Amino acid sequence: MAESRIPIKSLSFEEIEARFSALAQPRYRAKQLIEWVYARKARSFAEMSNLPEPLRRQLDDAFLFEPFEAVRVLGSEDTTRKYLFRLADGALIESVLIPASPALYGEASDRRTLCISTQVGCAYGCKFCASGLDGWSRNLGASEIVEQVMQVERLSGEKINNLVFMGMGEPLANFANLMKAIGIINAPWGVGLGARHITISTSGLAPQIRELAEQPLQVRLAISLHGATDEVRSQIMPVNRKYPLAVLLEACAYYTERKKQRLTFEYILIEEVNDRPEDAAALARIARKLQAKINCIPYNSVEGLDWRRPAEHRLDAFMAVLEGARIPATIRREKGHDISAACGQLRRQMLPAAAESGATV
Ligand code: SAH
Ligand code: SF4
What we know:
Blueprint: E1 6-7, H1 13-22, H2 27-39, H3 53-62, E2 63-64, E3 69-74, E4 81-86, E5 92-99, H4 102-105, E6 112-115, E7 119-121, E8 136-139, H5 142-156, E9 162-165, H6 175-186, E10 198-202, H7 206-213, E11 220-224, H8 230-236, H9 239-242, H10 245-259, E12 264-269, H11 277-290, E13 293-298, H12 312-324, E14 329-331, H13 339-344, H14 347-357
Parallel strand pairs: 1-2, 6-9, 9-10, 10-11, 11-12, 12-13, 13-14
Antiparallel strand pairs: 3-4, 4-5, 5-6, 7-8
The chain binds S-adenosyl-L-homocysteine and iron/sulfur cluster.
């Protein structure tokens, strides 16, 4: 039988209140429920000991706790940890927890970044990315997005203080659910994470970037640029044919102006594809015009794909051009530790084994 109950973590405070008033329940009951769900991370209505039992049964009939199953956790406490989740319909998604690395952020940093997915697969088929290799299956619901944060906090016992939408899928292609989930993640009654600690990464859907500019929340935006000319970008990102650089950069300028916010351009460096000094010069011109920062990521190899990470001297030469142009730019040289790299690429390695073993943690 198809599930007709509504996932509780897809509802805003007001929506839960409205449903409680339809059940002739006083408002404070809605508040109690929300406290159980988010602050106490309850996983069933049965646990909610200060709610009357008949109400708990009613809630069980009307609402659903996301039946997420953690199939596998890879990594150790002080390194990147990868969580593979099986969803209600059997689909597998990943979330990646990246604890502050003293090498990257300094000894005192308590940054704990979580990278989460927004879709099962991805329709955009960037040529270097593992997520798009098998195409797109479906969007994640708002509750499935929120649940990744809740589950990782529960399983790790840690509070996430930085969230990036850089896992599987194109966040802006799942706009309504993304916005809903961010509302809940941001809300003081929900996960309680400040909008400035939330970054959406997009492959460059220009109309949705404009739409995002109209939203009230000050979330951060990162653009996966990876090519500074249409020729290079179209070669590795098919989305560039739909929204070529001129269109994308105009939307970026609009976002920057409207939000008074500095954008980040993500730039994967792939040997002999986009890592020549003239690529760096073109990238610097774009960044200067938009007053954006650049985050360079040496390509992390994906099984089955032939791209290569550039040799060190090529990385040095590329960065030297950006530095010479006085563009704020960073590069992460640790293999596998970069946030975007860590997120974008584990699906292929993990899926077959996890699906076979059926293991749970
Ligand atoms: N679809 C969105 C968000 C998910 S991808 C986007 O494209 O922005 C998150 C980041 O991981 C992107 O910057 C993506 O280009 C990067 N990425 C994908 N595959 C990678 C790889 N093999 N090595 C390094 N970064 C990769
Ligand atoms: Fe999709 Fe982003 Fe991967 Fe491109 S880089 S295929 S948009 S997940």
